[in-house]
Specification:
single chain; alpha+beta; HSP40/DNAj peptide-binding domain; four-stranded mixed β-sheet; two-stranded antiparallel sheet
Length: about 150
């Protein structure tokens, strides 16, 4: 069994192949070896999903962070980015961070797309419950009404 060290070029696409010259099967009648092709299979991780050259990730926010706005740290594939989330952002909205996606192999990059997911606490402390009850009593917001 042989072991190969293979350089994967930046920006290689899912399904593309890397060719290793002369590393394939021996040729017939003593001819030279053929080439070996390695097919690339890029798998999404639990945290990042590749869509073209863009990378999509989830941005989890509490209801109060979504309502009030917040600066949050979000991980890209290279580093951590400080991202300003504007007040009133809705679950499902997407925030684009330019040039932080997948490299295209020509010196450019796609974008990092953070999809907002508002998460409600499953268990509330007594203080939290009181605050939510107070908010319920003073707010006239109704997401099921057309003019919000």
């Amino acid at each position: 069994m042989k072991t190969f060290s293979v350089k994967i070029p930046e920006g290689i696409r899912n399904g593309e192949k890397v060719r290793l010259l002369g590393q394939g099967k021996p040729g017939s009648n003593g001819g030279k070896n053929g080439d070996m092709f390695i097919k690339i299979n890029i798998q999404n991780s639990e945290k990042f999903k590749l869509q073209g050259y863009d990378i999509v990730t989830d941005l989890f926010l509490t209801p109060w962070e979504a309502a009030l706005g917040k600066r949050v740290n979000i991980n890209s594939i290279d580093d951590t980015i400080s991202l300003y989330v504007p007040p009133g952002i809705q679950s499902g909205e997407k925030v684009k961070i330019s040039q932080k996606g997948y490299k295209d192999g020509r010196g450019g990059r796609g974008d990092l797309i953070a999809e907002v997911k508002t998460v409600v606490p499953k268990k509330l402390t007594e203080d939290e419950r009181e605050l939510f009850e107070r908010l319920k009593s003073i707010s006239d917001f109704n997401p099921r009404r057309a003019n919000n």
